[in-house]
Amino acid sequence: MNNKEVVTKIIFDVVHDDLTLDQVEYLLETPKSAAHGDVAFPTFSLAKIYRKAPQQIASELAEQIDDTAFEKVEVVGPYINFFMDKKKVSHDVLTTVIEQGEHYGDFNIGNDDNVPIDMSSPNIAKPISMGHLRSTVIGNSIALILQKVGYQPVKINHLGDWGTQFGKLIVAYKKWGVEEKVRNNPIEELLNLYVEFHEKAEEEPTLEEEGRAAFRKLENGDQEAVDLWKWFRSESLKEFDKIYDMLGITFDSYKGEAFYEDKMDEIVELLEEKHLLKEDRGAEIVDLSAYELNPALIKKRDGGTLYITRDMAAALYRKRTYDFAKSLYVVGNEQSYHFKQLKATLKEMGYDWSDDMIHIPFGLITKDGKKLSTRKGKVVLLEEVLNDAIQSAQNQIAEKNPSLENKEEIAKQVGVGAVIFHDLKNDRLNTFDFTLEEVVRFEGETGPYVQYTYARAMSILRKAGFTPDENKNYALDDEGSWEIVKFIQGYPEMILEAADKYEPSVVAKHAIRLSQAFNKYYGNTRILAEDKQQEARLALVYVVTVLLKEDLHLLGLQAPERM
Ligand code: ARG
């Protein structure tokens, strides 16, 4: 039971004729200042019921309250302030975490149900963008958080590997491409070819038709087209995998858009059967005016299918394959309308499970104040960003801890972790700017700061040769440790909030605040002083390491023990 629950019960025992348990809990406040205790009960709203002044109610209630479980219960004006028994609470909390370890804060609300998470999903033959990076790291963290509360996440990389653009690319490659160059530098070369195609097409409009024809060939299984497409795809994947390796992120499925090529006829047939398809200037659409949305374009005039048609086939495939409890799409904010149309179209078809499809949008990243866009060639290559971050971590380690063993590996964990953490620490819908210096700082609200705090705590434990023992009576009653104990107590609730809101930033913020509280404690307290609370202080340090490590894990960061 947390402090509020304890207080709720005790007050309820006295006011149960007039208030419900929930009402009592709702009224409770957490005082800003420690001088007013840990939990406060304001009596204003009882004035009407008891027809008395709140001050008087407070003192009368306080007299009837069983205060044996508290350090003290104090009346200040209309408030009853409860001071928890620090020794008892800290003992309970420390013992619980020592017993449960990394499973502290686990839940089983997910019932082991499958939750496919559509994440990362870059487009073949193009560089992976900062937006795709966001989708990758946010999706990965949500998967870990959902796993912690009892779901089975299925991480799906819905690659953009189908569509007319591949017809264009095939044409461009056959006209101007050089095999050798593509082999050496696939993404950049393919992107150049694609850009070249668009430049030339402005003067030679027939190119566009050639591109469409090439895509039709590809759709019809023409050997040459298929071989080229496969080659572009596998070269691109090799490049993407380099980045996923650096990030330490894996997928359960790489079924991209192409996978649904032979599954779209069924969608069109189903729509026809349900009389939902309408002709509009030669194209086939589904009317969504009942949802106050523009019609969904299902089939183009030339018979070609579209992004949304493939997403419909994918949604149905996922429902059949995973029988999901929910199906998540971690995709930038700019595609919100697409996902509204997607869900509405499936709903029109009578698929009520479309209500369980959840678009998890996120904001845009700018770099040094500017928007990033592939088309204008202003690509920020992610690999470069990650390598720069690693380099910067290396420099800082060389300066701060030159004798550190395994420097390269740790610099990688810190540099990559810095980029991931920076991405996750803000509410995901916020837009933010990316400046390398800020990302890799060891101080401030950064990943390296949390990792550094963890390593520092680990070094204290090593120095003391401390091993936790769940049967010992660790108990603390000083203000410094009390602040940390309260954080630890709130951990399970924090996890639930993160899962409920699909918000890794909740975990990241917790990690920062816990680190700050710990560093303050470390600055003010002689942890290794040889007195009778030394072991209890070490147990507290140990529990902090358990939570920081779990926070880092849930965000997808490594927790090096030395740094
Ligand atoms: N490939 C798309 C893009 O880069 C993202 C795909 C998102 N997932 C989906 N099922 N539509 O814009």
Give the SSE layout.
Blueprint: H1 3-15, H2 21-27, E1 39-42, H3 47-50, H4 54-64, E2 70-76, E3 79-84, H5 86-100, E4 114-118, H6 130-148, E5 152-156, H7 164-176, H8 179-184, H9 186-203, H10 206-219, H11 223-247, H12 264-273, E6 277-280, E7 283-286, E8 296-299, H13 307-322, E9 327-330, H14 336-348, E10 357-360, E11 365-367, E12 370-371, H15 382-400, H16 407-424, E13 432-434, H17 436-439, H18 447-464, H19 479-489, H20 491-501, H21 504-524, H22 534-555
Parallel strand pairs: 4-5, 4-9, 9-10, 11-13
Antiparallel strand pairs: 1-3, 2-3, 6-7, 7-8, 11-12
Helix pairs in contact: 1-2, 5-19, 7-9, 7-10, 10-11, 12-13, 15-16, 18-21, 18-22, 19-21, 19-22, 20-21, 21-22
This protein binds arginine (ARG).
What's the quick description here?
The protein is of the alpha/beta class. The chain contains 22 helices and 13 strands.
Shape category = globular
Q: Return the CATH topology of the largest domain.
A: Rossmann fold
Bound small molecules, deduplicated: arginine
Strand content: 5-15%
Helix content: 40-55%
In spatial order, strands of the major sheet run 5-4-9-10
Tell me the name of the CATH homologous superfamily of the largest domain.
Answer: HUPs
Distance between the termini: 37 Å
CATH class of the largest domain: Alpha Beta
Secondary-structure-based class equals alpha/beta
- Radius of gyration equals 29 Å
Domain count, please report it.
3
- Mean pLDDT across all residues, rounded? 93
What does the largest sheet look like?
Answer: 4 strands, parallel
What is the CATH-assigned architecture of the largest domain?
Answer: 3-Layer(aba) Sandwich
Number of strands: 13
Number of helices: 22
Low-confidence stretches: 374-378
